[in-house]
Amino acid sequence: MFEAIVRNGLLITVAALIITVLGVLAATQIPVQMIPDLEVRTVSVRTAWPGATPQDVEKEILIEQEEYLRTVPNLQRLEATASSGSASIELDFPFGVDMTETLIRVNNALNQVPSYPVNVDEPRVYASSFSANSFMYFNISPLPGNPRDLDMDMMRDFIEDNVRTRMSNVPGVSDVGVGGGAERQIRIVLDPTRLADRGITITEVRDAIRRRNQDVSGGEIDSGKRRYLLRTVGRFDDVEQLRTLILERRGNTLIRLDDVADVVFDHFEIRALSFVDGDPVITASVSRETGSNVIVIKYAMLDAVERINREVLGPAGMEMKLTAEDAGYVEASVRNVWFSLGLGAVLATLVMFLFLRSARATAVGVIGIPICTIAAFIGLLATGRTINVISLAGVAFAIGMTLDNSIVVIESIELARRRGLDRFRSAVEGVRNVWPAVLASTLTTILVFAPVLFIREEAGQLYSDIAIAISASIMASMLVAITLIPTASARLKFGTENRYAGTGDAAGKRRDFGARVTRMVDALISSPRRRLVTIFTTVAVSLAVIMYLTPAAEYLPEGEEPKTFASLSAPPGYNLETMAAIGLEIQDYFLQFVGDDPSLFERGET
Fold first, then answer.
1. All domains of the chain, ordered by start, with CATH?
2. Residue 82 φ then ψ, to 5°
């Protein structure tokens, strides 16, 4: 078999080139992100009830939903929270559960709830994960000087209808959240005195508005050869129609809505304020789909924002700017890992050359580095993984390992040449003598990392990328060592035949160094007592290193992203106005430092 491999060098070269091209294509198709996607196992249920107190939310919504959600199979934990105007339920499930089926079961359980109060919104059910977190943040503000005198509180609906939809159409975007401002609202302020004078109750006003504000289908009419669909249009088109709504007819007297109430076009109560550099804004946050490429999404989103500014916001007197994004940090992190990977390859090549003392032999040995690196990307793509700092770390780790098999085969071929065999026979005999050892070494290395693939918890999901990258690289290194290395060796002269021969100073030093190493090993194992001392010393030193030099354990290493987050927790019962006053005071203090020269901080002047 090995003779056929070595003899068909052209076929082996073409196969290696095909694998290389496929690997390059795979590397361009794999999504790029910061860390691997973690398995979703938390389902969130959100139900809105505007204006309701937490006590009413608990009684009318949470208790009813909990009764049916407890029956969902595999449920590990249920946590419910009632707040003003909304209800929240978090459902935790074990690893390995089919989340698609779980979401269906949760929706079915919610559908069994008999009824909700009149103005309660439909429950929203979604699965939350790390990848669902927003990674790009924009702010929308008036143009400098606010030439159109815009009230940003009233612009939320415009942004959701015209900006959010365009941003959501960017491939790979799962959701665009809008914060700040308030949705438009027609507010009907009833006057109790005027209601009492006319003998009308609030319920009657509500029922009259509800009956009028709807379109009703009237059936069909056949006329000759045609059929007509009847439809009664009753929805209000503007505020004036609402003001003139007839509540009651008493003889020739009509009681209209504006007789008992003031109808104002306004917005919902503002529950949050957003500021950027001291200016009130509306914010937009972008979340990505699981497994998508954050870098591709970033640049596609920036192009979309440029078009939105030009076609939508600019004519309306507004502009959108990027506030923060995590994709740049991902790019920098991935770039650093790529640099470390390349540096490791260079250092491994230098070390190999130091021992082989032959440029040709070193070139044959390191030919597997790019091929094994590319094979790692094929393995990541085949298993549905992504390029991230953890998978790239696995590729970097594998560089040194991939050279082991090549060095073993090259040294075996070199020994065969020293026995007087020609290049072809030495290549065949060299690989034939050591391929079982190469195979055993490769399989044992793969088996070391294989158990990581079967860990279902977060640790297994995070670090399985390393196992896949290293296993694919090591497997490729074995194939390179028993195919490409002997094929190239049969056609190249290494120039190492006289590496240990000769009478020069260099040859003498190499022989002396080898002799000293041999004598040292012999001294360590010359007697049973020395062997026991060597073993004991090795174990003792290893335990001392583990006990005293092992660094502190962390789940993930700390990053160096230059960001600072701060939050204030107000005493219970504080309203928005009070919290806004506190926040604006802090904002005024920090605004004076916006745009400062960083060197001032380094010199301690600010």
1. 2-34+330-499 (1.20.1640.10), 40-128 (3.30.70.1430), 185-267 (3.30.2090.10), 506-552 (no CATH), 564-606 (no CATH)
2. -105, 130
